[in-house]
Amino acid sequence: MEQYRMHNHKETRSVEVVANDLKEWFNANHPDYAALLNPGASQDDLSTLKEFFDNRIPEEVIEFYRHVNGQSDLDRPILLNGYVLLPASEVIKTWKTTKASMEIVKINYRLDKDFGPIKGYIQNLNWIPIASNIAGDLYCIDLEPSEAGSYGQIIRVVKDDINLKQMGDSFKDFLGCYETALKSGKVIFSEEYQMFINPGDDEYLN
């Protein structure tokens, strides 16, 4: 089970506090990246996001987008290892792209085994993208976890590679872990790669 979990961080702060702490850290340490964080989404945008996914997105995700609507420049990743934080409109757009691709490639996407907390799929429309990288890999909100998983957990979906990993039991845990790693110096900005990295061990933050 643990081989599928990238960390065990349990966040005790509210989503609003985590969002504000994240913004404060970037303002103090990388103001150029702080400027990439969009202001909170409008109520109309939040309603569109909620209704598009049939009100299934966890409230803590909506609460975060109320304070930070992703990032503005999708060519300058603000998350670990080259992932950009998608604004609400891009969440829907990226999901639609995945859906269109699945409709073209008509295969059985269900695998014969689960990956610990994650149901074994090649791709799943119950995975809602909230971050992506240049290779097309995604961090997703998982609305269909395995029995060992948590509804709303964050998972990593690697394009063209069945290598599913859980990035946090919840969106709040995922964000809180990243903010804590930035603050502690475990995650640093690489001038060489022009992204935030954990030089110790890839995505593992514990």
Write structural notes for this entry.
With 206 residues, this protein is an alpha+beta fold. The protein has one domain: SMI1/KNR4-like (3-Layer(aba) Sandwich). Helix content is 33%, strand content 14%. The protein is built from 6 helices and 7 strands. The chain has a 5-stranded antiparallel beta sheet. A hairpin with a 7-residue loop joins β4 and β5. α1 runs parallel beside α4, α1 runs parallel beside α6 and α3 packs parallel to α5. The protein is globular and about 50 Å long.
How many individual helices?
Answer: 6
CATH domain fold name: SMI1/KNR4-like
Give the termini separation: 16 Å
User: What portion of residues is helical?
Assistant: 25-40%
Into how many domains do the coordinates divide? 1
Compile the SSE list and pairings.
Elements: H1 15-29, H2 31-34, H3 43-52, H4 59-67, E1 84-85, H5 88-104, E2 127-132, E3 138-142, E4 153-157, E5 165-168, H6 171-184, E6 188-190, E7 195-197
Helix pairs in contact: 1-4, 1-6, 3-5
